[in-house]
Amino acid sequence: MAVKEVKDEEILERAYRAVIDELGIAGFTWFIRLTQGGWGNWTEEREKALERFNNMPLEELVDHIKKHSKGPKKGQKVL
Length: 79
Prior knowledge:
Elements (H helix, E strand, L loop, with lengths): L7 H29 L5 H13 L3 H11 L11
């Protein structure tokens, strides 16, 4: 499949699923924090976030990410 045939939303969904499959929900949460910045004190909020995301069905998690994802900021490196 050629990448140009795929919509942005599908690329994001496939990428997020690949990260979840490879690293699990905790690794995915870490990935999002690393690539999209964040707010507040991550150390204090981590347990609540992990509990919420670990108990969320995958489709709901993907929808949540799509709704709240802003992508990298201009000039931000994505590892």
